[in-house]
Amino acid sequence: MSTTTNPAANGGPANTDGAIRAGDAPLIRFGDEQAMLLESAVAFAREQSTIADVRRRMEMPDGFEPALWRRVVELGWPGIAVPEQFGGSGLTLAEVATVAEPMGRHLMATPFGSTQQFAQALLAGGSAALQAEWLPRVCEGAIGTVALFEADGDWDLTRIGARAVRNGETLELSGLKTLVCDAGVADALLASVSLDGAPALVLVPREALGDARLRRDTVIDETRRAFDVTLDGVRVPAAAAITGEAALVALAMIRACALLIASAEAAGGIAGVLDVVVPYLNTRAAFGRKIGGYQALKHGCAEMLVGLERSRSHVAHAASVIAARGDAEVALRMAKVEACEGLLFAGDRAVQFHGGFGFTWDCDAQLYLRRALWLQSLHGDAAHHRARLADRLLGEAMPG
Amino acid sequence: MSELEAFRREVEDWMQANRPPDPGFLLPESFMEVGTDAQFEYLRAWQRKVWEAGYLGMAWPKEYGGRSRPQAYQDVVDRTMARLKMPFVTNTIGLNWAGPLILAIGSEAQKKRFIPGILSADDIWCQGFSEPDNGSDLAATQTRAARDGDHWVLNGSKIWTSLGSHAKYMILLARTEPGSRRTAGLSYFLIPMRVPGIETRPIRKLTGEHGFTQTFFTDARVPADCLIGREGEGWKVAMLTLTFERGVSGGQAGGLSRMHIGVEDVVDLARRTRRNGRPAIEDPWVRDQLVRLLIEDQGDRLCAARGKIPALCSERPDAIPLSHKLRFSEHKRRLLQFSIALSGANAARWVGDAAAVDGGKWPRAYFNAFASTIGGGTSQIQANIIGERVLGLPKD
């Protein structure tokens, strides 16, 4: 049968919706310096995070090694998207995504993602004093994180139960924040609170918190560390608060940063699954042949690869839009949906394709399946983002 | 305004001014469904008009009828034609598969003889690859070509010959070495169709339309110089053809090759139809499905963009081109299957029924979508190719 698949002939018109295609800007930008950064990040993650390293670090209390974090700091990556005036490299979140993808592929455990969200929130909404105090420290290796979620697990970051009450020049905090990543090692966290009836962020240094307010969560992804943090009785200076419009801008930036890093890590994770499953299918034999020759398994792997290609493309686009300071909401949500669903599919099938071994703790496929569920759970799963995308791209649905 | 943008406006103006009148009958969806002489002549006249305006084969050399301009200009034309929903140009096999092949490896004489007629639509081309007993397995070709003096003598049968009833020439894969197996002993020919011993018989498709033929060769004699590439190396030439057909290689003359139905058309349909007493586009399930399709559609567009940046494809450079057909054709099939669900009870109607939504265009388009998931190597073959060539899994 004859059929054309010439892309020029079949590609058809781009969706004319401006939200999907913004003017004539290239859909993806990726410069030579980014290419060099990608190369070193790929090599670094491969060498510093072998599967043996990952499993060893899973058993450590903090989930990572200070020595590894020091190497990340020496490479300048915590400050990669921090302006040079604060000691950073002055690049953008696109470079953060470039570094995050290989980290996700090799399940590399460091507080890199948490610290990025902390720093970007300060850059977006923090006062000059907060920026001057904390951003240089981040570039030198200080660890930061954000405390957003609460007991009900709501993804809407502006519905906040925790409170800050003014008492002169002091803020008295109360309430419980949950699933605060890397709180055990963080030098400071930015917690969302309700202040004067509106969302605000307060910077809480580790010494204002103390150990007793932290309770480690038992989480599905054992390479990660998260904590419930009780704010009751914590006092910070009023100058530590980000309020009003600045707070909303900072919260939106945290969300954007979190979605981009999660998408990049998930895309990398799909590549990581293929690293695990393909060699197994090329080695294991059943009924007289290598099992990778069976189409039932081969076609599943082809589908993983298709998911990987689409995810990497969505992530590269979202990174380009965000770096150009465009409206990245659609690109970020699409990237999150594609990459996280792609990783969930890949992890799920990889467990299945390993047969009996896949049912054991020792099979590495389960590590990626856990990562997939972890990434789905934070900042909105695929169905959540598709509903938001529908409102944006198809018009609001009528209530009821 | 950039030069390309100015050109885009020029093309848009020309297309608007030269849109052919409504033929008064349902046009086929692609070159694979051209079933009547009236459809064929309408589309042939349209292609000639587009070519005479200078909008076809823009990147092909001037001396053979092209325009010797950068490919970007042809891409602008193709996108504009799709966006304005212009009729397609029907000589697709000549323009996009045979033409680039002849330009790549043909002799000077072959280029001079064949390329101008491909562009003007004077010479319609068809393809003789698939055979009745082997669909996607091209290496099982049995049609024979035996050398007899200044001629080749052809015997056997080809199937799924799009435009078979209208074609003047065929690209043909045949076995020239008796007793050879699989990819060895095959040769590749550019043959005339109107010679004694070649007969075509129309095939009726699942849509009820005609368009393909089965082609029978009974001691058909064609001149010796029909051979392209070396005798016995036809497999290599066929693989090169497939890189054009599958869009892996550039070099096609371009031109819109099918009626474009995209995800934006299905979104528009969802605004026009109703579900549970409201516009279908307000239904949560419809919204979720539409967004899935929008994400896939955007993903393929972004893959095309990323495919042009080597640093982002260095791990598996073949992954994007070799997965293109699978991604694109399966997306299209899902999109069109979903579109039918937007017609409520009227989804039960077929082409020709007065109350069928949009004349029955949606279910017909869904059925025709199988042409792309089956033709040119089924999706299952594509998944094998990805598994084996991109991921390095064992052969079947």
Taking the sheet with the most strands of chain B, its summary is: 4 strands, mixed
Measured on Cα atoms, how large is the radius of gyration of chain A?
22 Å
Q: Give the helix proportion of chain B (percent range).
A: 40-55%
Number of spatially distinct domains of chain A: 3
The structure class of chain A reads: alpha+beta
Biggest interface reads:
A-B, 66 and 95 residues
Distance, first to last CA of chain B? 54 Å
Note the gap between the termini of chain A: 48 Å
Strand order of the largest sheet of chain B: 1-4-5-8
- The helix content of chain A, as a percent range, equals 40-55%
CATH homologous superfamily caption of the largest domain in chain B: Butyryl-CoA Dehydrogenase, subunit A, domain 3
The backbone outline of chain B, from C-alpha atoms, is globular
Could you explain how this protein is built, in words?
The complex is a heterodimer of chains A (400) and B (396). Chain A is 50% helix and 13% strand. Chain A has 400 residues and is α+β, with helices and mostly antiparallel strands. The N and C termini of chain A lie far apart (48 Å). Chain B is an alpha+beta fold and 396 residues long. Chain B has helices at residues 3-18, 37-52, 71-83, 92-105, 108-120, 234-245, 263-272, 284-306, 319-340, 361-374, 379-390, and strands spanning 125-128, 144-148, 151-162, 169-175, 186-192, 198-204, 210-223, 227-228, 274-275, 278-279. Chain B has a four-stranded mixed beta sheet with strand order 1-4-5-8. In chain B, strands 2-3-7-6 form a four-stranded antiparallel beta sheet, with no helix packed on it. Chain B is globular and about 75 Å long. Chains A and B meet through helix 1, helix 2, helix 9, strand 12 and helix 10 of A and helix 3, helix 4, strand 3, helix 7 and helix 8 of B.
